[in-house]
Design brief:
Order of helices and strands: HHHHHHEHEEHEEHEE
CATH architecture of the largest domain: 2-Layer Sandwich
Number of domains: 2
Radius of gyration: 36 Å
Strand order of the largest sheet: 2-4-5-7-6
Number of strands: 7
Helix content: 55-70%
Distance between the termini: 36 Å
CATH topology of the largest domain: Heat Shock Protein 90
Strand content: 5-15%
Mean pLDDT: 81
CATH superfamily of the largest domain: Histidine kinase-like ATPase, C-terminal domain
Shape: rod-shaped
């Protein structure tokens, strides 16, 4: 935090140095151009004296008066303090020039303190207006930089918030999937099945995908389908010949998809299809990629006694839709149907590519 603060201070000092040097050179050149026969050094010294108080005034107005009063909508108090501050700064600027600066480069008669304080018109034209004009330019630039920084911070916070939400959604899906898979392995180990080691190998592939690919924002659909194949092979060890899987793939383009999205839909089909019946299980999976979009559809058979139990989406499908909203706001389609003893989920997302 201290490093960030110090970097910010150094950056702001750099901006101010460039700004006030540019203002000094511009003011000196302009005044000298209007009175070319005069000594350039004299105008330069006067310019330095004015810029010193412009710097003090601009920073005081922006960092104290605006932050303390204007930003908190205390406009009357802000106006009173502003008028008083620029008057005092104008007086101090005039005193500094007459009594401290001019003796080094000019020999002009000195005004008394009373004359300086009471000559409002001269103070206004020669000191207060320059202080206000410099402060106005400085504050305008600072507001532009402030707006830019706030906008960048807002975008960054929204991005971090979206990433946290997506990670939370993934964390809700993964433990449930792992729980089911470990139960499968446990069931095989109880009967000393020869498929136990094979199921552990499949699980290892899936865990590797979750731990590494699952952290990425997008993965290739082909990679997602490979891990779906591993998951299906793992489920086949549990259901044997009761399970019938039909897959259709038409991968014409290397499109991308959020990791674990398709896998979650397949896992959901097993959860609400295979696990809720003792009979044969039919699951159909199809995926199509085009130059414009990707279509993924998964269907699972539903017996008559279970056909009315899936009117609601359930936690798994709700999480899938939340991810779709986060990745593709107003750009996706998710269609869920439950009829003719088939429960179908179809999602269409815009094409993402490498």
């Amino acid at each position: 935090m201290n490093k960030l603060l110090n970097a910010r201070i150094r950056k702001e000092i750099g901006y101010q140095t460039l700004f006030w040097l540019a203002l000094l050179m511009f003011g000196t050149a302009r005044n000298y151009g209007e009175c070319g026969e005069s000594d350039f050094r004299e105008f330069f010294y006067y310019g330095i004296c004015h810029v010193i108080f412009q710097i003090v005034g601009a920073n005081f107005i922006y960092y104290v008066l605006i932050r303390k009063y204007f930003d908190h909508k205390k406009y009357v108090l802000f106006s009173v303090c502003l008028l008083f501050a620029v008057y005092v700064l104008g007086v101090l600027n005039r005193i500094f020039i007459v009594y401290f600066a001019e003796p080094f480069f000019a020999n002009y008669p000195k005004n008394s303190i009373i004359e300086i304080v009471t000559d409002i018109e001269y103070l206004l034209i020669c000191y207060i207006i320059p202080i206000l004009s410099g402060a106005f330019i400085f504050i305008s630039i600072m507001y532009i930089l402030r707006y830019k920084n706030e906008k960048q911070n807002t975008v960054q916070l929204q991005k971090e918030k979206a990433e946290l939400e997506l990670n939370a959604l993934k964390s809700q899906l993964n433990p449930h999937f792992l729980f089911n898979t470990l139960n499968n392995i446990y069931s095989l180990s109880i009967v000393n099945s020869s498929y136990t080691s094979e199921s552990i190998s499949r699980l290892s592939d899936i865990l590797d995908y979750i731990l590494y690919k699952g952290r990425q924002r997008l993965v290739r659909i082909s990679d997602e389908l490979k891990i779906i194949d591993a998951y299906i092979e793992l489920e086949k060890l549990r259901y044997d010949e009761r399970l019938s899987i039909t897959k259709f793939e038409n991968i014409e383009f290397v499109n991308l998809v959020p990791p674990l999205l398709y896998l979650s839909l397949v896992e959901n089909a097993f959860k609400h299809g295979a696990e809720r019946t003792g009979g044969n299980i039919d699951i159909r999976i199809s995926v199509i990629t085009t130059i414009d979009y990707s279509v993924f559809k998964v269907e699972n058979s539903v017996f008559e006694e279970n056909s009315g139990r899936r009117e609601n989406k359930g936690i798994g499908l709700e999480n899938v839709e939340k991810q779709l909203r986060s990745y593709y706001p107003d750009q996706y389609s998710m269609k869920i149907t439950n009829k003719n003893n088939w429960f179908t989920v179809e999602i269409i997302i815009p094409r993402n590519h490498d």
